């Protein structure tokens, strides 16, 4: 999932670019009425603690300068508020995380709008398949406040093997759109977000107090390294959430992970701040074989389809070959489940299946060649012949498998091999059967010779 949110610090890096004025004067500003933590270092992103189920006001402010975006004057705009994962690993597994949450909390939503307390919001919509988002229309020229309630807590998504004491951070993101000529609100105007952690009721107040007490114990020099706590949280500009409809759409749109609504069919292209490659550069064709790091997004999708991972093409819709190969075995098990995760990991790492039996076979040199080699060595060597062995790997413990592998290794036409025998005591020829193959010792060595069949058609192979 390469369309990861651009954190505010990345936006600050854009200050040297020509768009400086636009960055300083976004068309809208969103302010959440909740205090930021005092235990955040000076140049880190702010962190705000919220109580589960408590209503928090987000003020929707018109921040346009005179003459900015005149086409929305006297018109409504649409905003979508979401609670999403901040951590990249959890973004990879949003669908699975949401399904698990729904199972434990049937009928609940991750995010709700407190309608009685909200002001200026119109045509409020919630999608049953999109439990983490609410949307509404509002007039930028009028006083507008949306009161949100977050019902999921940060420790619900912490692996229990770590004790669950450290909760994961979420993000509150607001995406705003204007109306197009066809009447749909799909033209992206502005996006901003902030980092939050959600605690059980009154837990946020206790955490805020604890952070404040810790800071009071620090020296004045240490305090200079930390931000002050602000009474409100200003959402910082960021990239639009990947599944939000915009005018900048991919030429071949593909759905984002199903944590978000399936009702949208166009998706934004991540900007240059995206931390995973989103360009589709030159790569080696992935029609078959291994997946190469240079594989483009389209080639990675083809590779997934060819190797029977069509179920996950949507989840990995924005992954290049390099992105997919960076995932660890644990990542893939968490994303795809144990069975498919291990299968995908083995396919990516080209893990071959260990043979059930390995034998080494050499074609016995002719007697005349042996004599010539001995003469060339002035009779000093009785082992003048060179014995070159071939490794035969058997996936099936069957006589037919040995016949086929021998033919392949020594370039013998398979249809000309009548029988395969093993030379036994006193030189007798024992027919090689499936049962005999199953009793071969691993890494046994054999010399083999060929004799013409009695009827003159084809020949037999004798293993010695």
From TrEMBL:
Biased composition (Polar residues): 244-288
Keyword Hydrolase: no
GO MF: DNA-binding transcription activator activity, RNA polymerase II-specific; RNA polymerase II cis-regulatory region sequence-specific DNA binding
Predominant localisation class: nucleus
UniProt cross-references to SUPFAM superfamilies, sorted A to Z: SAM/Pointed domain
Family annotation (InterPro entries): CP2 (IPR007604), GRHL1/CP2_C (IPR057520), SAM/pointed_sf (IPR013761), SAM_3 (IPR041418), TF_CP2-like (IPR040167), Ubp1_SAM (IPR037600)
The entry's keywords: DNA-binding, Nucleus, Phosphoprotein, Transcription, Transcription regulation
Domain Grh/CP2 DB residue range list: 24-261
UniProt feature, compositional bias: Basic and acidic residues: 202-226
CDD domains: SAM_LBP1
Location of the region described as Disordered in the Swiss-Prot/TrEMBL record: 200-231, 244-293
Locations listed in the record: Nucleus
Family: Belongs to the grh/CP2 family. CP2 subfamily.
Name of the molecule in the record: Upstream-binding protein 1
């Amino acid at each position: 999932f390469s369309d990861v949110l651009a954190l505010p610090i990345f936006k600050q890096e854009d200050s040297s670019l020509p768009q400086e004025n636009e960055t300083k004067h976004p068309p809208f500003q969103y302010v959440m009425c909740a205090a930021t933590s005092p235990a955040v270092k000076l140049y880190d992103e702010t962190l705000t603690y919220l109580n589960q189920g408590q209503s928090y006001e987000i003020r929707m402010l018109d921040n346009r300068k005179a003459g900015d975006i005149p086409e929305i004057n006297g018109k409504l705009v649409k905003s979508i508020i979401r609670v999403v994962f901040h951590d990249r690993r959890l973004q990879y597994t949003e669908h699975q995380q949401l399904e698990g949450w729904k199972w434990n909390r049937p009928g609940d939503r991750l995010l709700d709008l407190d309608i009685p307390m909200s002001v200026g919001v119109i045509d409020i919509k919630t999608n049953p398949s999109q439990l983490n988002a609410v949307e509404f229309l509002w007039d930028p020229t009028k006083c507008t406040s949306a009161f949100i309630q977050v019902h999921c807590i940060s420790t619900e998504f912490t692996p229990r093997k770590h004790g669950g004491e450290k909760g994961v951070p979420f993000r509150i993101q607001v995406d705003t759109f204007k109306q197009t000529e066809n009447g749909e609100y799909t033209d992206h105007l502005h996006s901003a977000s902030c980092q939050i952690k959600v605690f059980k009721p009154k837990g946020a107040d206790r955490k805020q107090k604890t952070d404040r007490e810790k800071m009071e114990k620090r020296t004045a020099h240490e305090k200079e390294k930390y931000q002050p706590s602000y009474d409100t949280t200003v959402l910082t500009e960021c990239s639009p959430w990947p599944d939000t409809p915009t005018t900048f759409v991919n030429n071949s749109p593909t759905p984002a992970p199903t944590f978000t609504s399936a009702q949208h069919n166009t998706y934004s292209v991540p900007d240059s701040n995206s931390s995973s490659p989103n360009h589709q550069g030159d790569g080696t064709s992935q029609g078959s074989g291994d997946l190469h790091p240079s594989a483009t997004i389209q080639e990675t999708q083809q590779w997934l389809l060819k190797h029977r991972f069509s179920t996950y093409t949507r989840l990995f819709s924005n992954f290049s070959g390099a992105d997919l190969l960076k995932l660890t075995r644990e990542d893939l098990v968490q994303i795809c489940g144990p069975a498919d995760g291990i299968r995908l990991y083995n396919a990516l790492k080209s893990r071959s299946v260990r043979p059930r039996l390995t034998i080494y076979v050499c074609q016995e040199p002719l007697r005349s060649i042996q004599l010539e080699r001995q003469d060339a060595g002035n009779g000093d060597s009785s082992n003048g012949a060179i014995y070159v062995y071939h490794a035969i790997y058997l996936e099936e413990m069957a006589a037919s498998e040995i016949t086929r592998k021998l033919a392949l290794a020594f370039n013998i036409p398979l249809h000309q091999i009548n029988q395969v025998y093993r030379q036994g005591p006193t030189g007798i020829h024992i027919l090689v059967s499936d049962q005999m193959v199953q009793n071969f010792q691993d890494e046994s060595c054999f010399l083999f010779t060929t004799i013409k069949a009695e009827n003159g058609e084809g020949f037999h192979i004798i293993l010695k």
